Every structure is written in C-alpha cells, then in structure tokens.
Amino acid sequence: MFSKACEYGIKATIFIAVRSLHNNRVSLKEIAKEIDSPEAFTAKILQSLAKNGLVDSHKGPTGGFQMERTKMDTINLYDIVNAIDGDSIFHGCGLGLKQCDSRKPCPVHHKFVVVRENLTHMLQNTTMYELATGLDIGLTHLKR
Questions:
Q1: Helix ranges, 22-138 (H)
Q2: 73 CB contacts (<8 Å, ≥6 apart)?
Q3: Which of 21, 35, 39, 85 could form a disulfide with 11 if both were Cys (CB 3.0 to 4.6 A apart)?
C-alpha cells in the first residue's frame, strides 16, 4: 500500500522517537542499520522528514536525528505518509486508474472510499508517542 520509501520513513521516525524518549540522538548509520535500509536511500528519506519538520537534524560530531517529546504527541502517521508519498493514497483511485471519480467510478470506487476513510482515520489518530512507547520494549520489530 505504501511505497518502500514510506515504509522506511515510518520505521526511521519510530526509531528516532524511541531513542529520543531516552534523550539520545541517532546517526544516519544507526537508523539505516536498524531499519535495514541502504544508507543513501535512508539519507534522502530523512532529509524529507527533516524538511517537513517531522524530525530534527543536527550536524557535527555530536549530531544526528531526534524528535522533541512535545512533537511526538502531534506528529502522526498521516504526516509521515504525506511527507514521503504525498496525498495520492488519500485521493487517488484504489486501482490506480487515471479516470476514476464519483461521476465515473471504477468497479471498486465505492468500496475503496470506506477503506480510504478508515485508513485516513487510523493514520491521523496514531501518534509517534503511541508508537514509540509501544515499541520501546524491543526495536527488532522495525526490521523485516
């Protein structure tokens, strides 16, 4: 459903949030290793997340990525998906057809409306804090 970049972005953001709960910054190398993603690909994803204000990037020898605790309550999965994949999943055709809308629906248009609404609700109501505290016990969940 989500692109590979988005999946990695979600995993990276959760990892950063978990480590930030313990007042730790994490390096690109640590993130790439933890989420089992190539470093160059991870760097581009993290750049997009930082540009959208979802993670904080610090340069230098003590640099790395982190997330303020207060941000964890406001940043949700919807924000990450939108930053990486854009909003096409929330508006596009469920079959990926170019010509599909309520006036000229594809065969699954009306069924997909319900799926899209439920997905949007879940993504908008799942915060980084919820995910970070839920996965803090074992980060091995982030690898495939």
A1: 28-35, 39-51, 69-72, 77-85, 88-91, 109-124, 128-135
A2: 127, 128, 129
A3: 35
- Confidence band, pLDDT 50/70/90 cuts, at residue 141: low
pLDDT over threshold 90, residue 16? yes
Domains defined along the chain, listed by start: 4-138 (1.10.10.10)
Q: What would the pLDDT profile of 66-99 be if each residue is shown by its tens digit?
A: 999 999 999 999 999 999 999 878 887 888 888 8
pLDDT at 131 over 60: yes
The torsion of the CA quartet 98, 99, 100, 102, rounded to 10 degrees, works out to 140
Q: Are 17 and 73 spatial neighbours (Cβ–Cβ below 8 Å)? A: no
Q: 4-21 and 28-35 are packed helices; what angle lies between their axes, rounded to 10 degrees?
A: 120
Distance of alpha carbon 31 from alpha carbon 49, whole angstroms: 13
Residue 40 structure tokens: 């160059």
